[in-house]
Amino acid sequence: MVIVNIKPLSVNEVWQGKRFKTPKYKEYERAVLLMLPKIKIPVPPYSITFEFGVSSKLSDWDNPIKPFQDILCKKYGIDDRDIYKGTVSKVLVKKGQEYVKFKIE
Fold first, then answer.
1. 85 by DSSP, 3-state: which?
2. Quick check: pTM over 0.70?
């Protein structure tokens, strides 16, 4: 394992000024909140696993994490600061068959 001795930079420190949700994100958030099932959430600390089915090879593996994770936190009443481990994978699928799988442990 490679170690780089520097404090990790928070996404909140990356941009200047306030960031606003786009209309596309607001629509996505509404849709996902309606689709998410009722599940039993364990006690923290959490481990989260994501699998993103994407239709473009150009999709970055990490881009969908934060928006989807924020929606999960909103739905299930968890705080993402209590997530101590994450596993993410990207799967290439045909256009129109995109998906997100997740597990909170």
1. strand
2. yes
